[in-house]
Write a structure and sequence with these properties.
Elements (H helix, E strand, L loop, with lengths): L4 H26 L29 H5 L14 H20 L4 H22 L4 H17 L7 H4 L5 H31 L6 H40 L11 H15 L3
Helix pairs in contact: 1-3, 1-4, 3-4, 4-5, 4-9, 5-7, 5-8, 7-8, 8-9
The structure holds zinc ion.
Zinc ion binds next to loops.
């Protein structure tokens, strides 16, 4: 009997997700430090020993080494298996939801971007331009081939070609999401003479808007802000952080919202 093609496709997506997650882990550590993501090969941040291929197998090596470096015993960040597992689940869900549709490719790419940004903001409070601006450009290219979702184009540009609808939704999404936050930040900086909201958050919002379009982008913003408020306040209270000085990784929560939308809705 031939193996079920559908099951084969989803298994392949899961394995691809693990491998992509492994590459994202390299990006999450190196991009905020301005290091190349291709060379040198993986090394232990504790003892700088180069990591052999058999200690670099996604998920399995972490389990086999019990989360410690073979040479110096330094803990390997739990982020490594978490990101690999997250991407495996996301790619599996995308394959299930979008099947052979070209949109699967767009959302897989988008999920990778926001998962990487979630972690760079969480670990280093950085949303690197390479990921935000680079992702925004990639989003515009995707918008040329795959329609950015939205309904407002029907009112403004009724009966127009798919390409113009898509670019309209992408552009409007970026403006609707990033515009108000950018304006608030500019006013705040003028009045208080210091920077409140980082420009990184503005670029991240523009990126989310280009991929998701205005309506779904706002849904991502809503999920992100709500989860950020609840989790952030709980963390400040439980970890006894100083609420006036603790810097909440707002971008990470935006990424959670953005990552969930294409998985809970078929866009
Ligand atoms: Zn080591």
């Amino acid at each position: 009997m031939l193996p079920d093609l559908e099951a084969l496709y989803i298994s392949a997506a899961v394995i691809l997700g693990v491998l992509f997650g492994s590459f994202l882990n390299v990006c999450i550590y190196r991009v905020p430090r301005d290091l190349s993501v291709v060379a040198p090969r993986s090394f232990c941040p504790g003892c700088a020993a180069s990591i052999r291929w058999f200690d670099n197998v996604p998920l399995l090596s972490y389990a086999f080494l019990k989360g410690r470096c073979r040479y110096c015993g330094e803990r390997i960040a739990l982020r490594y298996p978490i990101v690999e597992l997250t991407m495996a689940i996301m790619f599996g869900l995308i394959a299930l939801e979008y099947r052979w549709d070209a949109r699967a490719l767009k959302w897989a790419f988008f999920e990778g971007l926001v998962v990487a940004l979630l972690w760079t903001d969480l670990e280093d409070r950085i949303l690197p331009d390479e990921l935000t601006l680079g992702g925004l450009l990639a989003g515009l290219v995707f918008a040329v081939f795959i329609r950015t979702p939205g309904q407002l184009n029907e009112i403004v540009l009724p009966g127009s070609r798919m390409l113009w609808q898509s670019l309209f939704n992408a552009g409007l999404g970026a403006i609707v999401l990033a515009g108000p936050i950018w304006l608030l930040g500019a006013i705040y900086a003028r009045v208080r003479k210091r920077e409140g909201l980082g420009l990184g958050d503005v670029k991240l919002l523009a990126l989310i808007g280009v991929f998701l379009g205005p309506e779904n982008g706002l849904l991502a913003l809503l999920i992100g802000t709500l989860s950020g408020s609840v989790v952030g306040l709980a963390y400040i209270w439980l970890a006894r952080k100083n609420a006036s000085t603790y810097e909440l990784p707002f971008g990470s929560f935006l990424c959670v919202g953005a990552a969930l939308v294409p998985l809970i809705k078929r866009l």
